[in-house]
Hints:
Layout: H1 2-25, E1 28-39, E2 43-54, H2 57-77, E3 84-99, E4 102-118, H3 122-135, E5 139-145, H4 148-177, E6 183-190, E7 197-202, E8 216-227
Antiparallel strand pairs: 1-8, 2-4, 2-5, 3-4, 5-7, 6-8
Amino acid sequence: MKNSILTLFLVFAISALALGQENSAIPLIEVQGNASRKIAPDQASFNIYLQEKAMNVATATSVLNTKTENLAAALKKAKIKDYKLIADNFSVNINRIQRGNTWIDSGYVARQNLQIVTTSQTEELQKIVEAIQAAGDMSFNLQFDVSKEQQKALERTLITEALLDAQNQAQLIAETLGLRSIQVHHVSFEGAYMPVAKFRVNAESADAPLIAPDGQEINKRVFVKYTY
């Protein structure tokens, strides 16, 4: 068994060495292609975390469900045009508290995450804030981000532009050095960075302003090796 492992290790080591020697023997032009776009977030997410403690599971769950129903009713009453109310990560656990050096069980704690997702602009966002405030004592995080659809479309555009930038650089180098032809040897990518703007607002702050984030610059890099 040990001999088999040693043989396998030697095969991998020899292959890696041969590959390194092959790459070092190949004439290469290495370029970095860049692309950037300024983009504005196209959706907003209100993230709400609910927690309720009670001496029995039924009471804790009932109060939590009532808060969720109140929020749904407040959103409907506000006649907001475009939104999705998503409830997930519901859980009920034993509530343990510390008394002195001892932990004891003291009823139960129910938890629930709620998310309101919308593509609406400032006026509708204010309505959602007012609906959350009307539903009860809730705090939330307001996050502006880019939808998956827009991210996918932007990713394709940035990759194309970065590759063309790398190609233009390589062709300029080849023409300057008098090389007759070049061809792609290896391509690697650096992931695009999608900045996200977050705001925390307390439900009791009725007059808290909503801030729409400015456009963010998204960058994409590609690394291309050409042979000649």
